[in-house]
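queue> pop job 88
queue> type: inverse folding (structure -> sequence)
queue> payload:
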């Protein structure tokens, strides 16, 4: 039985349920305001766009500094300072976390979306995301097995306060770049990278999500981990509410504006229909996220709280996204000529290498009684 805490549902689950619903509504509404279809908030995709804007990859259709990402971290920083939860810490296998971030990004970009976007794709009628969800759950279950067997990256320790501010300063620099648009920063003129809400709206929406996610500990992967590992539904209630908020918003927009829900497999926005690698890509991503301690949104939030290990994981995501496009690993979305989308040339090989690395880490980094 799933554990329902005493004291009443709303006392324990009310805030995270409301917060998740608001986050889902914002994610779907950002599409109406200009973000790519089924991609109001995709943390890995947005880090991919940032990597492109910095010139780390050459895919001209996915280059933009996404203010939502900056807002996530700023919101977490503001919230953690107000509630005295800003605690600079680190030193828990940072190099391992970096490569977990790399392979989490590669797996996500083979599927074409992180766990957050998987929920948004489901809310938009993309049935490929059902296979992605099954893959994610499989990866999380494998990770839970290793957690039960003693997997541990080691304890973090307190570090100098200045170290905890580094990611915040990096995001401030990115904010300057997206506003000033210096000539050495790249911005897409077509494709998903050219589709975005205005900077101020994106930033404010990101800050709201960052504050809510920091206060509730929202995690799209930790929700399933807690269900499987300790039978606790706290985080899951937030994830379910996020999906419901996005679905209801899409239904309203579809009825009033049109084009926000399209049920099917082919010709889905920025999606590919190779189900084997949709499954395996998300399985790899789920395994990486759980072993590293949280989904990409959760890692960004913890970086805003001063966790430099999460900051290293985020840098791994950025580099993994760059590798995915530089080395022809990432999939491509559907086109008029190819409604099923295209699997990256070397994407399957990269996923296999990722599984080898991550399973080696999982087997060898276990505490023994």
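queue> result:
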């Amino acid at each position: 039985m799933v554990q329902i805490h005493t004291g009443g549902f709303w006392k324990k689950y009310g805030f995270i349920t409301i917060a998740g619903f608001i986050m889902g509504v914002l994610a779907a509404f950002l599409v109406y305001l200009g973000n790519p279809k089924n991609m109001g908030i995709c943390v890995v995709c947005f880090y991919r766009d940032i990597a492109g804007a910095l010139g780390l990859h050459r895919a001209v259709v996915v280059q933009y500094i996404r203010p939502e990402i900056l807002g996530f971290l700023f919101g977490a920083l503001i919230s953690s300072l107000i509630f005295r939860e800003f605690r600079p810490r680190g030193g828990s296998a940072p190099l391992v976390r970096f490569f977990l971030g790399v392979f989490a990004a590669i797996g996500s970009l083979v599927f074409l979306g992180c766990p957050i976007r998987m929920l948004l794709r489901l809310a938009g009628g993309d049935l490929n995301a059902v296979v992605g969800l099954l893959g994610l759950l499989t990866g999380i279950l494998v990770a839970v097995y290793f957690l039960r067997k003693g997997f541990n990256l080691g304890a973090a320790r307190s570090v100098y306060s200045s170290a905890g501010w580094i990611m915040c300063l990096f995001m401030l620099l990115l904010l300057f770049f997206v506003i000033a648009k210096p000539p050495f920063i790249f911005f897409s003129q077509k494709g998903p990278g050219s589709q975005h809400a205005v900077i101020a709206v994106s930033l404010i929406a990101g800050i709201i999500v960052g504050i809510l996610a920091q206060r509730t500990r929202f995690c799209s992967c930790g929700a399933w981990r807690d269900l499987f590992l300790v039978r606790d539904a706290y985080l899951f209630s937030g994830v379910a509410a996020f999906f419901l908020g996005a679905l209801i918003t899409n239904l309203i927009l579809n009825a009033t504006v049109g084009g926000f829900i399209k049920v099917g497999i082919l010709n889905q926005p920025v999606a590919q229909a190779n189900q084997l690698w949709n499954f395996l890509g998300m399985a790899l991503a789920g395994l990486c996220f759980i072993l590293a301690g949280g989904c990409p949104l959760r890692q960004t939030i913890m970086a805003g709280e001063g966790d430099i290990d999460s900051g290293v994981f985020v840098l791994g995501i950025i580099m993994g996204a760059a590798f995915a496009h530089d080395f022809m690993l990432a999939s491509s979305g559907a086109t008029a000529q190819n409604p099923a989308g295209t699997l990256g040339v070397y994407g399957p090989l990269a996923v296999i290498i990722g599984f080898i690395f991550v399973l080696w880490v999982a087997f060898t980094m276990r505490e023994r009684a």
